[in-house]
Amino acid sequence: AQSVTQLDSQVPVFEEAPVELRCNYSSSVSVYLFWYVQYPNQGLQLLLKYLSGSTLVKGINGFEAEFNKSQTSFHLRKPSVHISDTAEYFCAVSGRGTSGTYKYIFGTGTRLKVLA
Amino acid sequence: EAQVTQNPRYLITVTGKKLTVTCSQNMNHEYMSWYRQDPGLGLRQIYYSMNVEVTDKGDVPEGYKVSRKEKRNFPLILESPSPNQTSLYFCASSAVLAGGPREQYFGPGTRLTVT
User: Fold this and answer.
1) Which of A33, A116, B31, B33 is the most exposed place for a label (fewest CB within 10 A)?
2) Does the beta carbon of B111 lie under 8 angstroms from any beta carbon of chain A?
3) Taking Cα atoms as reference points, which of B97, B103, B62 lies closest to residue A104?
4) Are B48 and A45 within 8 A, CB to CB?
């Protein structure tokens, strides 16, 4: 079965500092990996995705993530955060299960709070 | 404009009164899905559909029904709502690759309160 773990429920960081939000997944099959962002009182929008190819993927707003198959991780990074990056970030995995299911699994989210 | 629409955006109802939340997408996506979002629990998949007349349970299907009679529509039905179904609900759609669904496009959400 697939699962996604975001160990950090909250991450405070000062403006212009770097940040890393951690995501680990488990799956017995090949998966696709995603990061979504949810600003307060809004829906979810895609930050970046890994489908295949280069393991370093770049997304919107200066974010990037690296797919590490051996460590089953897909950590999100930004070298310098802004106040406007304050939001909740969700890691997600999709894949075809052995029983033919196509579930889409989200982590529990990491609330990033950027401090002035 | 590519979009997923949901209605209503806000709904307050009473225990046991059947309700339907509609979802429609205009991107010709095969995959559609319903999620509920609760504090500290992230998004949990309720049901999903791979195509017309093909639906399957997600992780929290109890108390919900869905149907997919047309490719663009995927309504969520609560036959007898209970207070523990008070939540924020999202509909989403995506294209599908050989290995699974691609990135999801989300609707604006429906905030449901059951008293």
Assistant:
1) A116
2) no
3) B103
4) no
Token pair listed for A53? 């190819």
| Residue of B27, B36, B104 to mutate when probing chain A, most A C-beta within 10 A | B104
Q: Mean of the per-residue pLDDT values for chain A?
A: 92
Residues B5/B93, Cβ–Cβ less than 8 Å: no
List the 3-42 stretch of B: residues with Cβ below 8 A of A: 31, 33, 35, 40-42
Q: Is the pLDDT of residue A97 over 70?
A: no
Q: How far apart are CA B115 and CA B101, in angstroms?
A: 35
Average pLDDT over residues B91-106: 90
Residue type, B64: Y
Arithmetic mean of pLDDT, A17-30: 89
**Cα–Cα distance, B99 to A53 (Å, whole number):** 14
Q: Which two structure tokens, joined as six digits, stand for B35?
A: 């999620």
The answer to whether A61 touches A114, Cβ cutoff 8 Å, is: no
**The tokens of A71 are what?**
């460590």
Return d(Cα A92, Cα A5) in angstroms, integer.
9
